[in-house]
Write a structure and sequence with these properties.
Largest sheet: 10 strands, mixed
Distance between the termini: 19 Å
Strand order of the largest sheet: 2-1-5-20-6-16-9-10-11-12
Helix content: under 10%
Radius of gyration: 16 Å
CATH class: Mainly Beta
Number of helices: 0
CATH architecture: Sandwich
CATH superfamily: Peptidase G1
CATH topology: Jelly Rolls
Number of strands: 22
């Protein structure tokens, strides 16, 4: 699963396994923005993982996997041309130290080394939550949008493969009334997965996953892949865990085949 996390080997990223075990994965990067000085002064990465087989979590659904930085659902058993979902920007609760969390839709990254994605973020700078949004075409750095974001804002995000190396990424804040449509190119993308994800970005000074910011429960709704409910694609439920295998948040089962809730449990 692909997004912001650092690793010692180029092109590798998130860790996948059963909820009790783990395996390797690939990753992609994020940027600093002049107005968000809490971003680490290093390359941020979005996760990638090897979803080559369904992994069974203890007491979990048949298709379940663990990750050090992803939570949500990933369809990864075919070729995918589009993914979309809506969600409300959660409220961040911050207390003293820098923490980070993001919420996005994307193609690739689960079992490939590229990623095309867009979403929103709440990061903690001391006791102050900071909200913003971005898009990324890994291996290029992510780009932050300058529009204001507030907790409770309703987002719609989509990523569409147009053929060749062409992609269209759309992010709308329907509460504030702003939107961005990005036409971008990326050669060699596999289009081998589609994801709707909550994430802990990268990186600490040693290259580890950053602490997950405490966010209020976030519900992803109307999650579609190739124009149909994501549940029609037997997606893998991904659960974020710490180094001891403890869940850092919980991911509900799919409701109506296209909606689920992610609830924060711990930062590390």
């Amino acid at each position: 699963m692909l997004r912001r996390w650092c690793i010692p080997l180029a092109g590798l990223g998130i860790v996948l396994g059963s909820v009790a075990a783990a395996g390797t994965a690939s990753a992609a990067p994020a940027t600093q923005h002049a107005t968000h000085l809490i971003r680490p002064a290093v390359k941020l990465i979005r996760p990638v993982g090897h979803g080559t087989r369904p992994l069974v979590a203890h007491g979990g659904p048949a298709n379940a996997a663990s990750s050090t930085n992803w939570s949500g659902y990933a369809a990864a058993s075919g070729t995918y041309k589009s993914v979309s979902a809506t969600w409300n920007e959660p409220t961040g609760t911050c207390s003293g130290s820098a923490k980070y969390s993001s919420f996005w839709v994307g193609l690739d990254g689960y079992n490939s080394s590229t990623v095309e994605q867009t979403g929103s973020e709440v990061d903690c700078s001391g006791s102050t939550p900071q909200y913003y949004s971005w898009y990324e075409m890994y291996p290029a750095y992510p780009v932050n949008f300058s529009n204001p974001v507030s907790p409770g804002d309703k987002f719609y995000g989509s990523v569409t493969f147009n053929g060749g190396s062409s992609y269209t990424l759309v992010l709308k804040d329907t509460t504030k009334g702003w939107s961005h449509t990005i036409n971008a190119s990326l050669s060699g993308a596999a289009n081998s997965s589609a994801e709707v994800i909550a994430e802990a970005p990268c990186c600490t000074a040693s290259g580890g996953i950053l602490p997950l910011a405490h966010f209020s429960p976030v519900t992803f709704s109307s999650a579609t892949v190739n124009g149909s409910a994501i549940g029609n694609f037997s997606p893998t439920q991904v659960i974020m865990v710490d180094s001891s295998g403890r869940a850092k948040d919980s991911v509900s089962s799919l409701s109506g085949g296209n909606s689920f809730k992610v609830t924060w449990l711990r930062s590390n």
